[in-house]
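Students often ask what a holo structure prediction actually looks like on paper. The answer is less mysterious than it sounds. You provide the chain, you provide the ligand, and the output is a string of discrete structure tokens encoding the 3D arrangement of the protein together with 1,3-dihydroxyacetonephosphate.
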Amino acid sequence: MSFKDMESVAQAMVVPGKGILAADESSPTIKKRFDLIDTKSTEESRRTYREMLFTTPGLADYISGVILYDETLRQKTADGVLFPALLANMGVIPGIKVDTGAKDLAAFPGEKITEGLDGLRERLAEYHEMGARFAKWRAVITIGDGIPSDFCLQANSHALARYAALCQEAAIVPIVEPEVLMDGKHTLAACEEVTNRALTLVFAALAEHRVHLPAIVLKPNMVISGSECADRAGPREVAEATVRCLAAQVPAEVPGIAFLSGGQSAEQATEHLGIMNTMGPHPWKLSFSYGRALQAPALAAWQGQDERLGDGQQALIKRARLNGLASSGGYTNDMESAA
Ligand code: 13P
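The corresponding structure tokens follow.
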């Protein structure tokens, strides 16, 4: 695949009206989600749950791509269709999480470094063969007393850039995800300062590693107050600070920015994206790549019960549709009760 083909994939991932479903929870993470609904996490229960999500009627109207986990990429529907083939046949692009998780950064207490570069070239070749056309790598940045350090930001930017260059070599579009966590008491201003620092270093590293920016998708956090901040900023402030930060940091060649939800409620994540898309025009598309903000309502409706699979799908399609509207500037709050 040429850069041109990867550019087309990147553009399709962030086409207005659609966004990405992040369904790439590792087995330990999906277990935490299943624990909340008293459902045992087994290979079969995970398969059933993902089949419920992916076979939701109308999903392809609002979802451009799905991020899968290694296990999920190899699983099939009850009828024997591999999930990547099922998605591709629906016109939904299959993607794959390729990092192997955020580990403690030695000598830097409280900070993380994402692992997974060793053997990545070979894994990417296999994933491409299996139908993946984009990948995801998540760097985790914590705000706290004296952190993040410049060293942590640099180390994570370096890893993200090495990953992105390897993806493009394998004809796979990299989702570049530096996530500044919402955990903590910090203010919106502190999140803006750290997100600015993080993105400056990420784009410097991408340039040094000769990553072709028209063939990436950036997946950042929104600029938002810490979840335990005493005086949390409202939706318009969040939208304005996020757009201000991205406008300062993200080159116009980047085709699209697909936010993570990061622990925001489903409705907040939609509202914030909706406001940002009424503030344009922006040089890049602003879309979503939500995990929890798309799936939490579906999990709650499903409850691990076969007779509630349809309820789970209805909950998912509602969030997908409203986020689709938010990605094209057509969302208003009153749609929540009408839907
Ligand atoms: P959340 O939207 O739940 O933050 O997940 C998105 C994601 O893929 C994090 O890596």
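The pocket of 1,3-dihydroxyacetonephosphate is lined by residues 22, 138, 177, 260-262, 290-293 (CB under 6 Å).
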